[in-house]
Amino acid sequence: MSTVIRGGTVVTAARSFPADVLVEGGRVAAVGPGLRGDDTVDAEGCLVMPGGIDPHTHLEMPFMGTTTADDYASGTRAALAGGTTMVVDFCIPSHGQKLMDAWADWDRRSATAATDYSYHMCIVGWSAAIRDEMAEVVARGVTTFKHFMAYKGALMVNDEEMFASFRRCAELGAMPLVHAENGDVVAALQAELLAQGITGPEGHGYSRPPRVEGEAANRAIMLADQAGVPLYVVHTSSIEAHEAIRRARANGQRVYGEPLIQHLVLDEGEYLNPDWDHAARRVMSPPFRDKRNQDDLWNGLRAGSLQVVATDHCAFTTEQKRFGRSDFTKIPNGTGGLEDRMPVLWTRGVGEGRLTPEEFVAVTSTNIARILNLYPRKGSLEVGADADVVVWDPAAQKTVSAATQVSAIDYNVFEGLHCTGLPRTVLSRGEVVVRDGRVQAEGGRGRFVARAPFTPEARAARRLSDLAAPRAVVRP
Ligand code: DUC
Ligand code: ZN
Ligand code: ZN
Ligand code: ZN
Questions:
Q1: CB–CB of 388/369 below 8 Å?
Q2: Are 118 and 451 in contact (CB under 8 A)?
Q3: How far is Cα 220 from Cα 122, in angstroms, rounded to an integer?
Q4: Is 81 exposed, middle or buried (0-12, 13-18, 19+ CB in 10 A)?
Q5: Residue 148 C-alpha to ligand 2 middle, in angstroms?
Q6: Rounded to two decimals, what is the model's pTM?
Q7: How many other C-beta atoms can be found within 10 angstroms of the C-beta atom of residue 326?
Q8: Which of 158, 350, 354, 367 is the most buried (most CB within 10 A)?
Q9: Cis link prior to 50 (omega < 30° from 0)?
Q10: Strand partners, 48
Q11: Can you tell me the distance from the alpha carbon of 257 to that of 245, in angstroms, rounded to the nearest whole number?
Q12: 366 to each of 178, 191, 239, 435, how far by Cα in Å?
């Protein structure tokens, strides 16, 4: 049983060229002109790209006294609707919980996934036991560890804990991730604002200014340098954090920055909206910034000093947001975006001349696969790669609306945004999971994708030839 995606223009992170893509046994079997298969997916007038990878999601995550409203079933179907064929979700242990027990909890949640998935493991404290358990996590294929520098009294780690974990990552060939905000300063500013009677969502923005993010990014980068590990800074939203990343890279450090689609497109004015629900629905950390910061993030994506675009998909219903009706610090932090990341980035990025189609593929898929050690199995259309493919119709249009979305929540932060450029057909491991824009994937078909450590030996051992014996190789 084979499928040929016929008549489109293949777009990779490197170049674009007209070619068919032959899919067999869930993998790319050939790329080139005039291919034949048992089934045909029409790609006339369309671009054929590697499926999107979202490196940052929170599906069915217990957080701030509640649990995110999109679970793996609705969240991964929303992802597919938007052209994303893989997510990397955060496994968050409770205090004192064994890392592998937290992993088992997440496996129960991800049993309904419609896309492939991986995890980042969170380090929320430090002990000899955690130090030991990290080795098993890496051995089982999770090679990234997340550290919250904010959420004081909950998820936050201090410098001593974070540095110990960074050193352990260095030993294991793992890569640390950081949520870079100074949690002590945020807590102080929150208390001050509440004491002044500022209790609404605007207080959220005021309590987390760019300096708070820049300070933490600089600190984490210095500690990573001292520990001798690469570092991935999640949801980079400010000039200050970007500058820290850029400087580290110029000094030869492997440091990566991840803007979110929300920070690229939406601005801090949203928190001043007199409609409480409107503003609260947009409360996430870091908060939205101003136009200068947005322009700077776009510049970073073009220059390569920022490498990927994610969502931090962490969706709460309006009812859940209202837990913070009288105190902004109790509004569950998080927004949705899984379904919108690719159409909105295409529209505002490629459509408005900020990104090329090749840069779009790089920041939504290929760079992510490379940085997280998923490449070339994911993030590429090379022969032998998993056939996660998006047939992208650059002329298709829609207006973002909660009324038509797949996500389980009752609003959309991009409501009313007009998109030109949408997925028409999506394949996941060779199976057509979106046809004519409609998701037809079964929950539970998604698989865990193990990732190798970042040691030179492990890198050298990962060859595309290990993935599959291709039936035919047609070089375009
Ligand atoms: N920020 C959010 O907005 N939600 C989840 C966690 C985070 O850091
Ligand atoms: Zn975060
Ligand atoms: Zn509104
Ligand atoms: Zn997050």
A1: no
A2: yes
A3: 16
A4: buried
A5: 7
A6: 0.96
A7: 9
A8: 367
A9: no
A10: 10, 391
A11: 7
A12: 21, 42, 24, 23
Distance (angstroms) between ligand 4 centre and the Cα of 312 equals: 5
Domain ranges of the chain: 51-382+448-460
Contact 95, 132 (CB under 8 A): no
| Interface predicted TM-score of the whole assembly (ipTM), two decimals | 0.91
Per-residue pLDDT of the chain in tens (476 residues, 90 and over written 9): 999 999 999 999 999 999 999 999 999 999 999 999 999 999 999 999 999 999 999 999 999 999 999 999 999 999 999 999 999 999 999 999 999 999 999 999 999 999 999 999 999 999 999 999 999 999 999 999 999 999 999 999 999 999 999 999 999 999 999 999 999 999 999 999 999 999 999 999 999 999 999 999 999 999 999 999 999 999 999 999 999 999 999 999 999 999 999 999 999 999 999 999 999 999 999 999 999 999 999 999 999 999 999 999 999 999 999 999 999 999 999 999 999 999 999 999 999 999 999 999 999 999 999 999 999 999 999 999 999 999 999 999 999 999 999 999 999 999 999 999 999 999 999 999 999 999 999 899 999 999 999 876 655 544 444 443 333 333 33
Residue with tokens 């997925």: 423
Nearest residue to 39 (alpha-carbon basis) of 443, 475, 435: 435
Class of domain 51-382+448-460: alpha beta
Name the closest-CA residue to atom 2, ligand 1. 334
Burial 143-170 (b: 16+ CB within 10 A, else e): bbbbbbbbbbeebbbeeebbbbbbbbbb
Query: What ranges in 173-307 are assigned the alpha helix state H?
Result: 183-195, 202-206, 210-227, 239-250, 261-265, 276-281, 291-303
**What lines the ligand 1 site, CB under 6 Å?**
58, 179, 284-285, 312, 314, 333-334
How is residue 450 written in tokens?
């193990």
Q: What is the pLDDT of residue 473?
A: 36
* Nearest atom, ligand 1, residue 234 CA: 8
**Residue with CA at minimum distance from ligand 1 atom 4:** 334
Q: Report d(CA 340, CA 82) in Å as an integer.
A: 6
Residues 6+ apart with CB under 8 A from 50: 12, 361, 365, 366, 369, 378, 379, 380, 381, 385, 388, 389, 390
Here the tokens at position 218 are 């600089």
Q: What is the pLDDT of residue 454?
A: 87
| 434/393 Cα distance (integer angstroms) | 13
Q: Which residues contact 99 (CB under 8 A, 6 or more apart)?
A: 93, 121, 130, 133, 134, 136, 137
Nearest ligand to residue 280 Cα: 3
118 with 86: CB under 8 angstroms?
yes
Tokens linked to 209: 């200014």
For ligand 1, the distance from its centroid to the CA atom of residue 262, given in whole angstroms, is 12
